[in-house]
Structures are given as structure tokens and as C-alpha cells.
Write a structure and sequence with these properties.
A hairpin with a 7-residue loop joins strand 7 and strand 8. It is built from four helices and eleven strands. The chain has 236 residues and is of the alpha+beta class. The strands form two sheets. Strands 1, 3, 4, 5, 9, 10 and 11 form a seven-stranded antiparallel β-sheet that branches. The protein has a four-stranded antiparallel β-sheet with strand order 2-8-7-6, with no helix packed on it.
């Protein structure tokens, strides 16, 4: 404090001296943008290392306390199934057009992951299947020899209880895949700390009428997307 008093109120008395760039070798200077890229790579490396350690030590697989989300999943599972419904939660199987179920997305880095640890949301989904008794099937099949079952709709329940910005609801959108049009990718996206989750589903036209079960609601940390397909009509 005495040193400051001796220098009085001279502006910049305690600031470091600025030296001309000519005094430095150009190879020793670092571009600010390059410095930012280096720091980001270092941060990503540290995050990956930390994620691997906690994932190996945690029963949940991601080092986080997911008991609240597990309870939400259990509550949804306890509601049971309606006629024609089965669970739609397992990783997808099959190749090309036969692939149906959850998709494995490539890992990515987020601008916010230095503050929040990325996590995949929990979910409990259902798929509805049944017979289509259109004119063609009525002509060629009967109840003793029914036609093949068709997927008639889905019910998705994606859980986001720890969403940081609860004023911004999660979104969903469809993406074309590498099939011949038989399937499509349904992706769910939300803000931090959640990663995207996606499913390969049958590519049919949705019935967007609430009378036929369409529902899209985000309430109490749960995104519900329910939809049935329009009825398939046989034309000669």
C-alpha cells in the first residue's frame, strides 16, 4: 500500500509495460483464434477422460444420480399397455429397412459441457401394431388366417427433469435415412445437459387429429409425443 501511495494517482502506475512486437520473434507469438482452438481441444480431452472414469465407476453408466429419472420411467411402465401395444425401448436391430428401434448416435461435444455433464435422457416408449382390415385384406384373409400386422402408431415419453432452461421445451423432427423410404429417423433434441436421442420408425403419414390420439405435450419434465398413422386404403 505504501508503494501505491508513493506513486500517487498516476494512471496505469501498476499496469505492465507494453513492449513493441518487434522485440519478439514472430514464431513465439500465438494467434488468439489458434489459442482458443488449443484450449478447446484441451478441455475436450479432459472432459473425455473424466467421463470415462466416472462412467466406469458408476452403476448408472454416466456417473450421475439418475434415481429420479428411474422413478419416472418406473411410473410410466406401471401404467401398462393398451391393446396392441408393446414396449419400444430396446436398441434397434436389423439392417437397412429392417432396422427398427433406438439408434446409436455418434458422440459429439457441446459448448456447455464444461459446466454440465452431457447425458442421454431416459425414456419409455410404446409401439402399437394391429391388423388392417381394408378391402384387399378382407378379400384375401379372414380371422382364422389374418393378414400380417402393421405398425399403427407410437407413444414416446422422453424424460428431461434436469433441463436447465425449463422455459424452452424440447423439440422433435424427422430425418431421412439411407433406406428406400420404408423408415425414417425421429430425433429428439433439448438444451443442456441433455444429448439428442433418436429412433428409427416406420415411415407413414401421421394422423394429426387429437380425436385419433395425436398428442405433443411438455409438462413436469416429460415430453410426450403420441401419434397414430392414417389408415391405409387399398386402391385398384
Amino acid at each position: 500500500l505504501s508503494v501505491l501511495e508513493e506513486r500517487g494517482g498516476a494512471a496505469g502506475a501498476c499496469s505492465p509495460l507494453l513492449e513493441p512486437l518487434a522485440n519478439y520473434d514472430g514464431q513465439d507469438l500465438l494467434d488468439p483464434e489458434e489459442d482458443e482452438r488449443i484450449m478447446r481441444r484441451v478441455r475436450e480431452t479432459l472432459v473425455d477422460a473424466f467421463r470415462d472414469k466416472t462412467g466406469a465407476a458408476s452403476g448408472s453408466g454416466d456417473g450421475l444420480d439418475r434415481r429420479h429419472e428411474d422413478a419416472m420411467v418406473a411410473a410410466e411402465r406401471a401404467r401398462g399397455m393398451e391393446q396392441g401395444e408393446t414396449a419400444f425401448n430396446a436398441p434397434g436391430k436389423g439392417a437397412a429397412d429392417e432396422f427398427h428401434g433406438e439408434m446409436s448416435l455418434p458422440s459429439r461435444h457441446y459448448d456447455w459441457e464444461d459446466k454440465y455433464k452431457p447425458r442421454k435422457p431416459r425414456f419409455f416408449n410404446r409401439v402399437k401394431t394391429g391388423y388392417e382390415w381394408n378391402k384387399y385384406n378382407q378379400t384375401h384373409y379372414d380371422h382364422d388366417n389374418p393378414p400380417p400386422k402393421r405398425v399403427q402408431g407410437y407413444k414416446f415419453n422422453i424424460f428431461y427433469p434436469d433441463l436447465i432452461d425449463k422455459t424452452k421445451a424440447p423439440t422433435y423432427y424427422l430425418e431421412k435415412d439411407d433406406s428406400n423410404g420404408e423408415t425414417v429417423t425421429l430425433r429428439f433434441h433439448a438444451g443442456p445437459p441433455y444429448e439428442d436421442v433418436a429412433f428409427k420408425i416406420v415411415n407413414c403419414e401421421w394422423n394429426l387429429s387429437h380425436k385419433f390420439g395425436f398428442r405433443v405435450v411438455f409438462d413436469r419434465g416429460v415430453l410426450q409425443l403420441y401419434f397414430n398413422f392414417k389408415r391405409w386404403r387399398y386402391r385398384r
